[in-house]
Amino acid sequence: MEKKKILVANRGEIALRIIRAAQELGHATVAIYETPDADALPLRIADEAVWIGDGPRVDYLNIEKVIKAAKKTGAHAIHPGYGFLAENPDFAAACEEAGIIFIGPPSEVIRNLGDKVVARRIMEEAGIPMVPGTGNLPPGDEGLEAALAFADKHGYPVMLKATAGGGGRGIRRVESAEQLREELPVARAEAQAAFGSDAVYVEKAVVNPKHVEVQIIADRYGETVHLGTRDCSIQRRNQKLVEIAPAMITDKKLLDEICDAAVRAAKAANYFNAGTVEFLVDQDGKYYFMEINTRLQVEHTVTEMITGIDIVRTMIKLALGKKLAFRQEDVVLRGHAVEMRINAEDPQNDFMPEGGKKVTVYRSPGGYGVRLDGFVYQGYTVPQVYDSLLVKLTVHGFSWNETVDRLRRCLRNFNIAGPKTTIPFYLNIVEDPDFQKGEFDTSYLDTHPHLFEYEDVQSEVNKLAGLIAEIHWKKENPYAA
Amino acid sequence: MERIVFGMPVDEVLRTLRSADGYYITNTARDLSQSDYKNRILLHTDLLAAEPREAAGYFSLEITGGASIHVDILRKQVDPFLKLELLREKMPKTMFQTLCRGVNLFGYRPYPQNVIRLVVREFAKYVDVWRVFDFMNHVPNMQAVFEEVQAAGKILEPCICFSTGPEHTNDFYVGKVAEILDVTGPDIILCIKNHGGLGTPKRIGELVAAIKDRFPDLVIHYHGHNTDSNDVGRIQAAVLAGATIVDASDHAFSAYYGPPPILSVIHTLKDHGKRAIGIDEEAVVATSDVLRDERPHYDCFESQFRGFLPTVQIHKLPGGAMGSSLEQAVKGGFLQQMPEILHKELPKVQVELGNWWSVTPGSQILWTTAVRNVLDGDRYGNPSGDLKNLLLGKYGPFPFYRPADWIYEKVFGSDWQKILEQEGGMDDIEDIDIEKERQTLAKRLGWEPTDQQLVTYLQHPNDAVEFFKFEQKFGRVYVLPPSIFLRRGGFKLGETLHFRDHDGKEHVIEIGPTLKNEETGEITVYLNVDHHQRFYTFKEETAATAAAPAQTSLSKEEIAELAEAGDMRAPFTANVCDVLVEEGQEVKKGDRLVILEAMKMQTPVESMVDGVVVEVTVDLGDAVQMGDKLVKIAKPEA
What we know:
With 481 residues, chain A is of the alpha+beta class. Helices cover 35% and strands 25% of the residues of chain A. Chain B has 638 residues and is α/β, with parallel strands linked by helices. Chain B is 40% helix and 18% strand.
């Protein structure tokens, strides 16, 4: 393959993930960064780095600046990662216009699937099961009336969703008409602020479902395959924390059905490159289409672990015009994989981010079946202005038991000092009998409050070392005075 | 088996002592540490010495009590109970001894009766021999401790404090012994507490003989100090006159104001045909061989004044107070006045105030008064509170005579007689509510304290809380040898420190560079902890930072409490994305006041009260920290 130059329009662990894949393919890589990321590891690993502004979170979203950086460095292609511009059809279109390959689906596909109303129509036409819902609500009181009428018909709770939202963002659960009246304007304002559009719609809430998604991948030549399912039921406030492949559903026929539906959905949308079709599965084994995420997912690692297929490498190759090198029958799912997002957050304080703190110690686990996708290092200060993900721990095991054992071992082998992390909370999860049995749905955190009970432990030697440091630097040892 | 060991019933111990052919030795390691090392010999060192000390076969090891418990938590950062537990593990046979100041326990002022009883009960689980004294030799001051020690089945060793002068006759002391025995019954050991190392060998011999003459079955334990270098002589006279137990300690740490060396006592008495029962001389030697290497680490605590002080017979300061008095003179810049203070003023004050016993807390009163008298040039013109209490009889009645009227007049003014009449005499100290204290401690610590922690807290409230927090932060630091814990001037770059933690796990710490950020004044110390780099950041205390007001950082609970009062604070760090109220607006409980945004999620802040908005502190777009003011609502007058 001809050697190209690929710009990574992202930051953090995903920037590093993409740079690694590109470098393995022999391509040159370009990182971009805002000022708060000046110390970030991807800049050191990439072949080139371009400063695009002081940020925070404005320059990474600035299409013009990113395209300019690509042109300036002579990049042939841009991988958007996840978040930021990844699902912005204008960005994909701007790339297309500038003659730069966008590593992802065409702008039109992003636009269609990003508009949840259009997406629903496409899926309905393709016969994919849907959760009942309204179209985009009209503005003002008319919209409120439509929402109230829908909720009356289908019953509460209902979900209030930002049409342009995604990845769990811009979703509210509403329990009553009174709350709906109150929340609708807030949801609109939030949608406007977060996504640049105040369009919202209402959907029937599926109570305590499992969140199951299917990784799909399609080339330009009509081949669309799925790489199996993922279970992302363990979430807080609709944000995923722990992801598992394949989904923990014993009914294999149901899983096959869901995967087939995902491929049908992708084909109906004329999908190209990697994407994720998300479903809700209720307690009766009924499944509903939720949305298609037109990008690489954070949790793609678990699928890679059980299929052996490098999704990012495949994305780049497909974008550069290659055919899929494997067919559906070549995709074999082996064992179980779990990803845990090690975030700099305090689970006991409502997952409050611990940004701004320096990572004074960073020691990570290793060994068989262990994969780490991170970008922090000892001495790194976690920026306050971005998300709090430090490293993704992904483990693979032959059996579910083995996988849980490996998770436990790895979490214990982590030694991170400085910011508080989600590790002690995850340690409680791996010790939880329901998790060990593979029994959990999206209500898991709410129904397992004991997961939040743990003590902040400092090893004895680290405490003593703290005293030694004090004795060392103080000119007068207070204990010898 | 003549050796007396831990676990023997009290009557068996006393029977063995009464029929002893020879004498026993108590190793007063605590008094050595207190008199010559400002009480700072670490548990680490005592644990090193534990094995040979156990083999040496002492009657007891005096290892706690006096001022040591306070210093344990204040300076040595060791839990006084943990110390005893760990020593017991290594010394299963040796009895542990304490020194208790009666109503003043291990402190400087009288405690309530229920505190005294609780403290003694808790310590009696670890301490086998209880030496109890009162600086006025006022027996009722010791009674609660006597009762609790006997109730716990431990060995009670009441003291008669000893001093010199015309009033200090054999008759007086024999009378005191009778007074004690009336209260305790016959099954005690009597201690002659010669805390100053006063009197000649002849005088001590006569006193022992006089007591033995009146109470032939009474076991006498002689305790002295070697300040004048002649305590071996007094010990010899005491034993020859019938004392059964004597005090001495390890020669590797021998200095000037503490006990004399054990081996010198043994050798001296051997020549008189007196045998040190149970003692293994080789183990005594071996103990000092272990300790010798440790002594240099304690250099900074030794008296700057080398040499014995036979003038103790004039000023009578107890060995345990010598080091601190000299240190005070150095720090206070009145060292050149010490001869006047020690040899002229102190003996004069001593006699003027009643010629009782110069030992804690009385020795502090005498010393402070003498120093003030000399430095101020106005005798008794600047009396301490403790001196006033003494004159009012708060510590107990004067044993020989009351100080002269002119002193009372000087201290209390012309109304002194009225004051003495109204306020004189001992106070009944009311019991405190111990459960309430426990709750207060739990609140201050943030966890439920153990009974032991409560006992430590009841004696030294603030220092105990500081210590427990220290222990939580830094762990069990007794594991650090004095070469680390007492290091002055920092470690060398690349120096490796080895130690074993409380669980026995071996660790190595290598000292890395220390870097200073000139801009922020932050100091970062790099350490390789078990071959893994860590760094510790400190803020150098500058005049500016010391003077800066403490940053307000409210807890969740505090924020919730304020909200109930209408003072709405930011519950987390966020951006203000909407302000929905303005000043003067009426609001109801549950109304939205402000919308905050964090992690891309909006969260409304709702009013917790009905009322009127009196202040809006934030604007749209403001960034707020947890605890920052948002909106203030005044509740209508009820």
